[in-house]
Amino acid sequence: MRNTENTVVERELELKLVLSPERAVPVPARLVYRTDDPYAVHITFHLGSEHPVDWTFARELLIEGVFRPCGHGDVRVWPTKVEGREVVLMALSSPDGDALLEAPSAQVCAWLERTLRTVPSGTESERLGMDDGIAAILATTAVTDEVCEVWPRDPSPSFGGDGARPWDEPQDGDV
Question: In 17-101, where does DSSP find H-type helix?
Fold first, then answer.
């Protein structure tokens, strides 16, 4: 049964935008997980401009990325150590450019644990009511099948009485 209660799990933290191996600038960010969008994580970067930058990607990608390299294309995540600190690196690519961000591993893991207590991995579909939706589709299909059972399958005599339908191709010997 669908859980209609919506919960939000948020965490403010400071990431580092890696500009070069020797230079990084702090970037305030907010991690957001919403139970009404249970497969996704949302990250908002406040870059000092009027408009923050928002990214959304799979929660599972971030969960896996704190343990081992994962992802491809627009979002890649992997754990590493920088100056003895455990961090999670996120490489983000878009038509507007690329960014490499460094996040403190302990803070990301603590936030992910809170999301997993809220919606355990593997139970996301229950939040979306997918089972209810599939049941409704199957119920509709059953009704459609019943309608098809009463719909005449044999052509009407108005097609000429020989059973041929106007759109049937003529067979050998047919006139």
Answer: 59-65
Confidence of residue 34 (pLDDT cuts 50, 70, 90): very high
0.85 surpassed by pTM: no
Residue with tokens 């960014």: 99
Strand order in the sheet with 75-82: 53-58, 40-45, 23-34, 8-20, 97-104, 85-94, 75-82, 70-72
- Could you please report the per-residue DSSP string of 109-174? HHHHHHHHHHS-TT-HHHHHTHHHHHHHHHHHHHHHHHHHHHS--SPPGGGTSSS--TTSPPPTT-
Report the distance separating Cα 110 and Cα 88, nearest Å: 13
Radius of gyration of the chain (CA): 28
